[in-house]
Amino acid sequence: MNASLFDFEDADDMKVLQSSGKVSRKILKSSPKTKLPETKTPEKITPEMKTPETVTGLTFRLKGLLESGIGEVYVVGEVSNFSRPKSGHVYFTLKDKRAGISAIIWQSTYSRLKFTIEEGMELVCRGRIEVYPPSGRYQLILTKVEPKGIGGLELAFRQLRERLDGEGLFDVSRKRRLPLFVRNIALVTSSTGAAVRDFLQVLRRRTRLVDVLLVPVQVQGEGAVGEIVSAIQILQEIAAYRKIDCIALVRGGGSVEDLWTFNEELLVRAVASSRIPVVCGIGHEVDVTLCDLAADVRALTPSEAAERIAVKDAELAERLTQLGNIIDRNIDAKLNEWKNKLDYCAKHPAIIKPKRIIENKKRIIEKLDEKINYAIDKKLNEIKQRLQRNIITLDAISPLATLARGYSITETQNGKNIKSIKQVKQNEKIRTKLKDGQIESYIVEIKNTNFALPN
Fold first, then answer.
1. How far is C-alpha 365 from the chain's CA centre?
2. Domain limits for position 21
3. What is the enclosing helix (H) or strand (E) of 338?
4. pTM of the model
């Protein structure tokens, strides 16, 4: 057959296959104008022809050719149609502008990834071609993936940092200060590493007044996270009956992979939730881990962690001397203040001549007494004069005064003054009041007489 095995759109694709050494037959560049010779289908199958193979046989023959012939592949593409069912396996399409291929990451491989694969992410993948016989489809089984342009650990660091920061684990407001004078330290680190030696040397140079409880743990590799988390949790229980001022979590320098233990979510949450203040000194000055961000105090190195925790004995002595001087000055100032007050009191007239002060107060009281008595007498006279004027006025308008001049007052039996003949009836009993008594009488006759009252 003269037709080409593959038909490429550009020469670059052909060069790649030619340089790979895996193309066993000649690849021809076909032109759109080139017409392939027609193959004639035999009208009927003759006994001389080869026995036809089954679909399964053909599929497995192709499976062997692809899987053994191509071998391991190294490919870059964009994630599309990402899904992860309950099985834990990951399925997606790895595509570029002109093609796509199904890809699978088994759960055991995906669980070891530090970062999370997301839709649209560009990945650099390594894996192998596999044919799935039930559907006759070929797919990529990926054994290693990395984000394009950025390391997987760096991406995992960014993703976890963003998520935990959103929860408030790195907020400055939740961080606690160390006690002014730390006396009991729980040192969580490897007992054989350089970090423990550096930490203790710096601590010893600065002070002899600190007790250190060494909690040896694995700080790298499988199982390190579990050991450190358990150590922090056990220290919370120990603190109930033994005073622990702070936890120092330290480790020497190393690669990103070496320090990755301190970026694991489980350990970061344990550091953030510790009831004992945590000082974290991981790696060198340029190294930053998520445990550093979650700790109450971040130190650049294990040595600086010791410096941040312990105050030098000389500095402490100097500080105590300064405080003593401040106390002495305050006491002297207060004594001088009290002495001045006593001197003032000693010169006060109440202390020097108390009798004269009493006599002066007595004269003041006597003058006040005279003023009060004068005011009372004056007020009584005014009231007396006002009362006399009121008596004269009342006498002038009193009905008794009218009776004394020869007038009388006639009333009905129920005590009402009779002002008109219309108020009484014949044979009705009436009462007449005079100045020296009253007369009771009966009405014999009622006459209506009109006369003018005297002016």
1. 69
2. 11-28+53-149
3. helix 313-346
4. 0.48
